[in-house]
Specification:
Strand order of the largest sheet: 14-13-10-11-12-15-22-20
CATH class of one domain: Alpha Beta
Shape: globular
Oligomer: single chain
Radius of gyration: 27 Å
Number of strands: 39
Helix content: 25-40%
Structural class: alpha+beta
Strand content: 25-35%
Length: about 650
């Protein structure tokens, strides 16, 4: 089992994370990448890199033959799958072993047993691990599932037996929604995992989601490294994770840790794994699933234990015993992690694509940023929208939380929409600050969806000043020398410049006058005096005497700025330029680039507002395209199987007469 070269069968931040640990212990690291990922940081970090396809995952990161061929070509003796992609694919693990290579992960039998939620649940029941009542039978007919649902009772969860990460999962609260939930979960599961098998479970409403990190070696040792609270979720995907759980007691940790160890022993586990539980207010907990891989949120465990989990994975794969015993494990301080996504929370968390014009990761005491992006890169529609993880550690939970809020504000990506402001707002919630978050936190906080943030007039003025400053610099670069004290000076009275800026459908008219020290800009009924000084890649800004440092840039007619947790992108509108933004009436365009999985409407069909017209897959999730009005489908501009870009016309509806 000895090897000196590891191939990382993954991309982005986790590939970079594994490469760093492998190189730190003297191993060579080989990266694989697509054409779309050719300039990604993990490619540059690796000792060697192999191109394995264009962009789509089915012909690249999910192609086991290409991964194995890359390993053979580079002399790799082991493959680390990271998380996602092939990490929990038992057939891939078997193929790695059959090729004479080491799979850095559990045995294929354990992956297969725990990878199917139905089989895993049966094993856990046999092992005495508490489980939620439900249906995990082999008969997958609608009739049997409907009957089982009636017996379980509402609300219930429909889950992909082979899935995870919120895919193939639906909460059903009304009987009439069950058929649609089964159909959507089946479709999403088949596309994401290659299996449409489902299980049903009684929904445990508003629990905590608490998981236990386990580790096992080939010598019979199985330990746990404490727990992580992952209760803050949207669409069953984690947003915030922390260690330890705010309400954990030594007695409860002991019970959950022992249950997690029994779960691992039930499948003769090897390496790193996570046993996930639902924890209710009475202290009772129920097995949810086991993730037979490294978790996205493993950094919080590393920060409170001081252990390198990737290095431990490699050591176990090389046949070494665990470097620590259960008695050695000590949790120090508190760590919290958030996931920076390319998504728009105010638009139903729709994933976003776009360029990375500027990227700066926060630094400071107790701060760690695991990222897989770089400036100049393009965020593509082919992969998961997670861009980076921002983690803070402190001697107490409140210190870690305060540090993380600052780190979110100081981690800046400009060019692509992200959830930075949303993350800051979640961390600032009183319920979260008190350690009382449950899985329903976001639904309770924003029952009608996350609202769009109103832009402050001072930020509009700032955006205008940045554009005018860029115009001034461009003019100066084409002119002779102009003394600094003559900037903004004119012997005749100056007429104000008029700018029109757009943010989505909003329009802002600005009247700006140049001053020797900067600009005077009027937005609506407010007037601001601004001075800008560029220093070290940032702008030092004074607005009416109030100073702050911001990150900003101007690209053509677009201006991007980051102030605190706000990320603002505005466009300067010019004469002769179309002001049309988005669609009107019954014209439906793609809200993001993606693959059209299903078309449910055709020309002449009568549709009602809210009806599902199509299903679009983007960034590994399925999104329903619904009718904005009631009327008749006049035209369909795409078809199932088509890959479409954001803004492409999909369907036209003629609204019914009032």
């Amino acid at each position: 089992m000895s090897f000196d070269t590891i191939l990382i069968a993954n991309r982005g931040e986790i590939a970079a994370r594994i490469i760093r640990s492998a190189q730190a212990i003297g191993l060579r690291a080989v990266a694989v990448h697509t054409v779309a990922d050719a300039t990604s940081p993990h490619v540059e970090l690796a000792d060697e890199a192999v191109e394995i396809g264009d962009g789509p995952v089915g012909s690249s990161y999910l192609d086991a033959c290409k991964i194995l061929e890359a390993a053979r070509a580079t002399g790799a003796g082991a493959i680390h799958p990271g998380y996602g992609f092939l990490s929990e694919n038992a057939a891939f693990a078997e193929a790695v072993e059959a090729a004479g290579l080491t799979f850095i992960g559990p045995r294929p039998e354990a992956i297969r047993a725990m990878g199917n939620k139905a089989e895993a649940k049966r094993l856990m029941i046999a092992a005495g691990v508490p489980c939620v009542p439900g249906y995990e039978g082999a008969d997958q007919s609608d009739a049997v599932l409907t009957a089982a649902a009636a017996e379980i009772g509402l609300p219930l969860m429909v889950k992909a037996a082979a899935g995870g990460g919120g895919r193939g999962m639906r909460l059903v609260q009304r009987q009439e929604d069950l058929a649609d939930a089964l159909a959507l979960a089946r479709s999403e599961a088949a596309n994401a995992f290659g299996s449409d098998e489902l299980i049903l479970e009684r929904a445990v409403i508003a629990p905590r989601h608490v998981e236990v990190q386990v580790f096992a070696d080939a010598h019979g040792s199985v330990i746990h490294l404490g727990e992580r609270d992952c209760s803050v979720q949207r669409r069953h995907q984690k947003v915030v994770e922390e260690a330890p759980c705010p309400v954990m007691t030594p007695e409860l940790r002991d019970r959950m840790g022992k249950a997690a160890i029994e779960a691992a022993r039930a499948v003769d586990y090897r390496g790193a794994g996570t046993v996930e539980f639902l924890l209710d207010d009475s202290g009772e907990f129920y097995f949810l699933e086991m993730n037979t891989r490294l978790q996205v949120e493993h950094p919080v465990t590393e920060m409170v234990t001081g252990l390198d989990l990737v290095a431990m994975q490699i050591a176990v794969a090389q046949g070494e015993p665990l470097p620590v015993t259960q008695e050695d494990v000590a949790l120090t301080g508190h760590a919290i992690e958030v996931r920076l996504y390319a998504e728009d929370p105010a638009n139903g968390y729709l994933p976003a694509t776009g360029p990375v014009h500027l990227w700066r990761a926060a630094e400071g005491e107790g701060i760690r940023v695991d990222a897989g992006i770089r400036e100049g890169q393009e965020i593509s529609p082919f992969y998961d929208p997670m861009l980076a993880k921002i983690i803070a550690h402190g001697p107490a939970r409140e210190i870690a939380r305060a540090r993380l809020i600052k780190a979110v504000e100081r981690t800046v990506l400009l060019g692509c929409v992200t959830n930075a402001r949303f993350l800051r707002d979640v961390l600032a919630l009183d319920v979260f600050a008190a350690g009382e978050a449950r899985t329903d936190l976001l639904d309770n906080t924003w029952p009608d969806g996350v609202p769009a943030v109103d832009i402050a007039p001072r930020h509009v003025a700032l955006a205008g000043a940045l554009i005018l400053q860029a115009d001034r610099q461009a003019a100066l670069s084409r002119s002779g020398y102009v003394a600094p004290d003559q900037l903004g000076w004119c012997s005749a009275p100056q007429l104000p410049s008029v700018l029109t800026l757009a943010l989505g459908e909003e329009r802002y008219e600005l009247r700006a006058t140049a001053k020797p020290e900067g600009w005077q800009i009027r937005v609506g009924d407010k007037t601001f005096s601004l001075a800008l000084q560029h220093c070290g890649g940032q702008f030092r800004v004074s607005i009416d005497g109030q100073r702050e440092e911001i990150n900003a840039l101007v690209r053509g007619h677009d201006v991007f700025l980051a102030s605190g947790a706000d990320r603002i992108a505005m466009r300067r509108l010019r004469a002769g330029r179309s002001d049309a933004m988005g669609d009107a009436g019954g014209m439906i365009s793609a809200p993001m680039p993606g693959l059209v999985l299903e078309m449910r409407a055709g020309p002449g069909d009568q549709v009602t507002k809210g009806d599902t017209l199509a299903v679009l897959e983007a960034m590994k999730m399925q999104h329903r395209i619904t009718a904005p009005i009631t009327g008749t489908v006049r035209a369909v501009h795409t078809a199932a199987g088509a890959q479409i870009a954001s803004g492409d016309a999909m369907i036209e509806i003629e609204e019914d007469a009032a």
